[in-house]
Amino acid sequence: MLKKLGIAVCASAMLTAGAIPAQAADKVADELEIFSWWAGDEGPALEALIDIHGKKFPKVDVVNATVTGGSGVNAKAVLKTRMLGGNPPDSFQVHAGQELIGTWVKADRMEDLTPLFEQEGWMDVFPEGLVKLIGTDDGIWSVPVNIHRSNVMWYVPDNLNKWGVRPPQNWEEFIEIAPKLKAQGVVPLALAQNWTANHLWESVALASLGAEKWDKLWTGELPFNSPEAVAAWDLFGKVLDYTNTDASSLSWQQATDMVVDGRAAFNVMGDWAAGYMSTTKKLKPGTGFGWVASPGTNGQFMFLADSFGLPKKSPNRDQAIEWLKILGSKDGSDAFNPLKGSISARTDSDLSKYNDYAKSASKDFSHDRIVGSLAHGVTANEGFMNDFATVMEMYLKTRNSDAAGKAMVSIAMKNKIGQ
Ligand code: GAL
């Protein structure tokens, strides 16, 4: 199996295998610090995992260290300071893909989890493609806890009926119906603080480029300043014309609230919005809220996966390993994901525990064309993402597509993307 995944198990990894012992409940440290950005409204799913841990290890004090801010905008900066200052948490949230590999693995800050994957039988339950994303030739570096979809458009069915519009199939259709919504005093598309502009951008770019060219942006086969890539910025600019002017002061939840409260018709957000609407707002999928693939991306599933890793020098390493075991387990996964809005990263999850949104996402994931998210760490490292946020700020002020394309060429070079 290891061979099939193309992951060479080096001698040191095998030595580490012996260092990941099965722990007896009374032989572990009495503290565990887990670090993430799942605070407040984003907390319930994480708490379900902490509850499982608490039942197994009642004597261990869990420090649930969270830094608020969607997509980890603030948490990642705090984590960086802690990691570089030699003060890592025991385990931390990180996106599968380049955010993990191109940032923390490259900096040699993570422990290889190959022995744990073997011991827990995870090589057979996590999809091969996903294991590749969290692995390198030298090891496997995190435990995936979910699969989220980035390219989803949300709405409230009754409100659309009232306003006489239907969910748009493509952005041209959206641009056609948007004035009709505006005329009724409704914001066509709710947007929040800047990272959500990055999030919207990736859905618009996927629609504009198609899956194949989207992939080629990240392998370097399609230049960021090519006419196709620049055209994606042009389309993005047209879409932005129909968003709220106070976007930069809103959280993603507040933009979702605009849709829920009937102040806006749509928003494009990852399916943690389904978790928020069903778990926090108690809305029923299908009637309380509806969804379609974001315009022009039907049949394409832009995915991301949250995962947790084990940093080198984790102060309570044994407990961190116990935590990771819960995360990767079937029970853990099926307790976490139904609350989170995501689907399990495991292939054997119990779908009867999931709501209608998750069931439809799971179906789409099984047959759609899968592409990786930029905004949530799959296609590029953190250095690129930070620089991309600056490009976005510049674009929001100037709406200059050519300049954005050129700037992306230089940040790709700087952060070694597509080389
Ligand atoms: C993503 C993360 C999701 C959710 C979202 C909003 O980056 O993968 O799990 O937390 O940010 O904060």
From TrEMBL:
It comes from the Bacteria. It holds the Pfam family SBP_bac_1. It is found in: Periplasm. The keyword DNA-binding does not apply. InterPro entries: Bact_solute-bd_prot1, SBP. Residues 1-24 form the signal peptide. Keywords: Signal, Transport. Belongs to the bacterial solute-binding protein 1 family. Part of a binding-protein-dependent transport system for a sugar. This is Probable sugar-binding periplasmic protein. It comes from Parendozoicomonas callyspongiae.
